[in-house]
Amino acid sequence: MPWMIPRLLKNLFGGPVTVRYPFEKKPPVPEVRGKLSWEMSKCDLCGDCQRLCPSNAIIVDEANRKIIYDPFSCIYCRTCAEGCFHGAILCSVEYAPPNTQKSTEVYEKKEVPVDVT
């Protein structure tokens, strides 16, 4: 029982461990559980993110040059961002905002006009 005395004193005289959320906003831990987005200028639609995603939250549509991302299926493990060799997947340090309806995010790769001279 004497080994419990330091923990008991810490709990009695220490401050609260939790944060009063609506009144005190604490920033999230960097690069953890942040909102995902794609920088389509760097993306080559290789499909590595789709293959690496354990929850199948990413669909790469090469024919239509789109990436369809379902944030409600995503477990925010960042495997897709770590496996992207081009650095096209960005992880912000902001939480994804709460939503009342399920929706998907579509990122479209624009056609770059080729200058033939």
Strand content: 15-25%
> What Rg, in angstroms, do the CA atoms define?
21 Å
CATH architecture: 2-Layer Sandwich
Quick check: average pLDDT? 84
Distance between the first and last residues' Cα: 84 Å
Contiguous runs where pLDDT drops below 50 for at least 5 residues: none
Which shape, going by the Cα principal axes?
elongated
CATH class annotation:
Alpha Beta
Structural class based on helices, strands and sheet pairing: alpha+beta
Q: Helical element count?
A: 3
- Write out the strand line-up for the largest beta sheet, numbering strands in chain order: 2-3-5
Structurally, how many domains make up the residues? Answer: 1
Report the strand count: 5
From the 3D structure, determine the CATH topology. Answer: Alpha-Beta Plaits
Describe the protein's topology.
Elements: H1 5-13, E1 36-38, H2 48-52, E2 58-61, E3 66-69, H3 79-83, E4 89-91, E5 105-108
Antiparallel strand pairs: 1-4, 2-3, 3-5
Structure overview:
The protein has about 120 residues and is α+β, with helices and mostly antiparallel strands. Helices cover about 15% and strands about 15% of the residues. The strands form 2 sheets. Strands 2-3-5 form a 3-stranded antiparallel beta sheet, with no helix packed on it. Strands 1-4 form a two-stranded antiparallel sheet. β2 (about 60) and β3 form a beta hairpin. The radius of gyration is 21 Å and the shape is elongated. The N and C termini lie far apart (about 85 Å). The model has no long low-confidence stretch (mean pLDDT about 85).
